[in-house]
Amino acid sequence: MAKITLDNLAHSYLPNPKGEDDFALKELNHDWEDGSAYALLGSSGCGKSTLLNIISGLLHPSQGRILFNDNDVTAAPTAERNIAQVFQFPVVYDTMTVRENLAFPLKNRGSDPAYVASRVQQIAQMIGMEAMLDRKARGLTADAKQKISLGRGMVREDVNAILFDEPLTVIDPHMKWELRTQLKSLHREFGHTMIYVTHDQTEALTFADKVVVMYDGRVVQMGTPQELFERPEHTFVGYFIGSPGMNLLDARVDGRTAHVEGCAIDLGAGYRPLSGRVQIGVRPEYVRLTADPAGMPVRVRRVEDVGRHKIVRADFFGTEINIIAGEGESLSPDMNRISFAPGSINVYADDWRVAPEGAQADPMGRAA
Ligand code: ADP
Ligand code: MG
């Protein structure tokens, strides 16, 4: 198992990249701690697979170095890196049985036959394929083949890391939850460094200790699910995570007051003068619909009952604002004002979060 360090890494698929736009992966410095379970989250095309393939050695980066436990492996071929990788679509040997497919990575390394047999049995149980061990892979459903691929990724106990690239795409929904739970327990048992790529926030937040969010070829934030929720470092993290995502309103910030459409909002802390596009971000969970005349005026457009809570879609001076009202909260037609919970507002300049003045920098180098 290994700590993985990305040092000044960048990648362009073009032979002569001109500017930053030509890079699928913008310059990146990042440590993946040994034994942690990470989710790599971002929308399609943001560079997740590119990054994974560079770590496993399938792709050679145009710039920078990859270190495993401080050893430079940038030039090392995939086999030497001792990494298991599971792809979005099944990679299985059709002419082999399920058992032979699962055993392959172990046999390949010359493992003891008795160990291979018991380990294969264990993995077959995890992926729910014990009954099919002697069937040929040919003729199995895509779903079953992908489970074999997952099993093959997990079968070796001695790998440096296991990389999963959207592995549950072709798996049917009820099995997804089951397999994700298995992956988590595998992680608890063996403590492999795991990187799990997904574009699904629920998958990311339920799988990982730490979520790494990518946007447009950049890592914009790494944090616990709670950090991503409370303090999104980039507006993308704000609206990508959460359901619905963070409300963003254009604002003018003056000291500890934000001015939005003639309303003055207390930010709870002071800010230095800001330039660029300034916005405030407030999660729907922290917006309250009220009849209190001291609130800011909104026009309620629609109320959606989603079971545990209600989502109120309202219009705030021409901008849609979403409000989450808890189960116990009763809504009435005279509620046409909103207020924001104290301490719940984040301030952004050109999409990046600005820390209030006097905030302590945390050990990650970000501001609290
Ligand atoms: P993700 O996995 O997040 O969907 P990718 O890493 O596959 O994103 O792609 C990142 C960017 O690089 C995209 O703009 C994609 O079109 C481009 N890209 C990916 N693979 C190649 C390739 N082999 N050749 C050229 N461009 C590529
Ligand atoms: Mg991909």
UniProtKB/TrEMBL annotation:
It comes from the Bacteria. CDD domains: ABC_Carb_Solutes_like. Keywords: ATP-binding, Cell membrane, Membrane, Nucleotide-binding, Transport. Residues 4-241 form the ABC transporter domain. The keyword Mitochondrion does not apply. One of its GO terms (cellular component) is ATP-binding cassette (ABC) transporter complex, substrate-binding subunit-containing. One of its GO terms (molecular function) is ATP binding. InterPro entries: AAA+_ATPase, ABC_transporter-like_ATP-bd, ABC_transpr_FbpC, ABC_transpr_MalK/UgpC-like, Mo/tungstate-bd_C_term_dom, NA-bd_OB-fold, P-loop_NTPase. Belongs to the ABC transporter superfamily. This is ABC transporter ATP-binding protein.
